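User: Hey, my collaborator sent me this sequence without any context and asked if I could get a structure. I don't really work with proteins. Can you help?
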Amino acid sequence: MKGILALAVTAVFGVTAVEAQQKLTSDQQDKLASFERWAQLAMGDAPKIASGGHETAYYTRCIESYDEMMKAGVAPTTRVEEQKIVHGMWAGSVQELKEKWCDAGLKQAKTQTAGREAPYREALKADKLKMVIGSPPGHIRSYAVPGGEYTSDPKKLAAAAVWFDNASAPSNEIQVCKTGGKRIYLRRYAFDGQHKLTGQSSKEFCGNIPSTAYQ
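Assistant: No problem. I've predicted the 3D structure and written it out in structure-token form, which is a compact way to encode the shape of the chain:
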């Protein structure tokens, strides 16, 4: 009997959700679809937060799309069509889904990002800090120090007066040297004692960059 009642309730809510969405204007339906897309991405991304492999943009865009949907006149109590998606069951009101997957996810992502960035904020400052923990949030960049070792160790980066990274030739230029090797640029960044960038230069190489170039 309980199973029958549960199926009946599910059916009622499913019809209610469909009927409610059919009453929305085309613009409101578009806003709802956009919110559902970002909320489902946030839902699927949530398990990655603990490891730092998450995409913070999913949570921020989810919240932004929800706000856009509210401005368009969609009620917070509007229910989505219940269905099973790859990440689990998709059901509830848009407000419930936003709070569960967007708000909670963003809070957890910010906490994880703050913990990951803490050692860099302690060891680095000024331009060095900006270059390491730039965009996207939570992403840590590594650089080579004199001698050619690439590292993301905050203490090594703080101690080095010069950093390096490399880049391929621009996509609209020839990628191969006359000798057959790949064109590659070594970029050099010089800093003062306050970690401010004082100079930047680049040098082109053909093939592998020799360790002697990292000076």
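In plain terms: The beta strands are 83-85, 88-90, 143-144, 150-151, 162-168, 183-191, 197-206. You can pass these tokens on to your collaborator as they are.
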